[in-house]
Automatic annotation (TrEMBL):
InterPro entries in UniProt: Epimerase_deHydtase, NAD(P)-bd_dom_sf, NAD(P)-dependent_oxidoreduct
Domain of life the protein comes from: Bacteria
Pfam families listed in its UniProt record: Epimerase
GO molecular function: aldehyde dehydrogenase (NAD+) activity
GO cellular component: cytoplasm
PANTHER family registered for this protein in UniProt: NAD(P)-BINDING DOMAIN-CONTAINING PROTEIN-RELATED, PROTEIN YEEZ
Name this protein carries in UniProt: Epimerase
Domain NAD-dependent epimerase/dehydratase residues, every copy: 3-226
């Protein structure tokens, strides 16, 4: 199989590239000229440089490809460039869909997010759930939902595209939670906000495997939730504390955290930097809860992920 991976140098994309190469597949990777390629060291893929919104670049990248894996995205919460996020997540997806449709690609797998469901208020939902949240919690939430609408529209027009909806993606090179784990292992993480926040977890390599299974077995137009399970961050740190003997962080006072988010948000916008807390991040910590059931992927794709406990144990052992 010859596969195109957009965002090949990213966290998810790079693990997918390695999984494909281990199978003996030929891989083309779409990356930007400014991309850091450290994650792709020792990989043999063919690189195509350009923007996800550049139709000519995409036509070059897609030539002779059997399957497209679309992982490229602008992922961030807090202070973001809304216009750039829309360009990458929405217009980039639209352009890729158009090129794939014209080229008659045999299969496309889109890496979406469980965030498209919006706040489920703690209710465990499956792929049949219809979003009830009227507004959007973030620019990322809005743009990924808009991109999913486009993907579903193209599927109804006959494009063989499957959507994978991962929960929180974990791994030793995870740019979001791995640094937190490293601080915990050094004994420097004394406080943490939102211990009751529920987090869905999937190992990045299990996500890569799910995407490959979706290319092989996924039904065109189908959505597949990808999550090994969920737990609160307090439970997460308790498991890591039990493994290491390191004391779990104490709960930061909610009032102080909210006050800090309200103060730092405008400062970050004025001076154009990403503060550790913002109104949007505080909202995700305390007010938004998305819980999911990944039974469909297990049954239809034969997906067999490692458990949440195994994922966390591996993260602790290799960080």
């Amino acid at each position: 199989m010859k596969a195109l991976v957009t965002g090949a140098n990213g966290f998810t994309g790079s693990h997918l590239v390695k999984a494909l190469e281990q199978r003996g597949d030929r891989v083309v990777g779409l990356v930007r000229k400014s991309s850091n390629l450290e994650r792709l060291a020792n990989c043999q893929l063919q690189l195509v440089y350009g923007e996800i919104t550049d139709k000519e670049v995409l036509q070059q990248a897609i030539a002779g490809v059997d399957v497209i894996f679309h992982t490229a995205a602008y992922v961030e919460l807090g202070i973001v460039n809304d216009a750039e996020m829309t360009r990458v997540n929405v217009e980039g997806t639209r352009t890729l869909l158009e090129v794939a449709q014209t080229a008659g690609v045999a299969k496309m797998v889109y890496c979406s997010t469980i965030g498209i469901f919006g706040d489920t208020a703690g209710k465990v939902v499956d792929e049949s759930f219809k979003r009830t949240q009227q507004n959007f919690s973030s620019a990322y939430d809005r743009t990924k939902h808009a991109a999913q609408v486009l993907v579903d529209e193209f599927a109804t027009q006959g494009l063989p595209v499957v959507s994978i909806l991962p929960s929180g993606i974990f791994g030793t090179d995870d740019p979001h939670f791995a640094p937190v784990v490293q601080q915990f292992l050094k004994g420097r993480l004394k406080l943490w906000a939102g211990g009751d926040r529920v987090t869905g977890i999937v190992h990045v390599d299990d996500l890569a495997n799910a995407m490959i299974l979706a290319a092989e077995k996924g039904t065109s137009g189908a959505h597949y939730i990808i999550s090994a399970g969920d737990l609160t961050t307090r439970e997460m740190f308790a498991q890591m504390a039990e493994k290491t003997g390191i004391t779990a962080p104490q709960e930061a006072p909610k009032l102080v955290v909210k006050l800090a988010g309200n103060l730092l948000d405008p400062i970050g916008r004025i001076f154009k930097f990403q503060p550790p807390l913002s109104r949007e991040r505080v909202h995700y910590i305390y007010d938004r809860c998305v819980r999911v059931d990944a039974t469909k992927a297990r049954q239809e794709l034969g997906w067999q992920p490692r458990s949440v406990a195994e994922t966390l144990a591996e993260l602790v052992a290799n960080s």
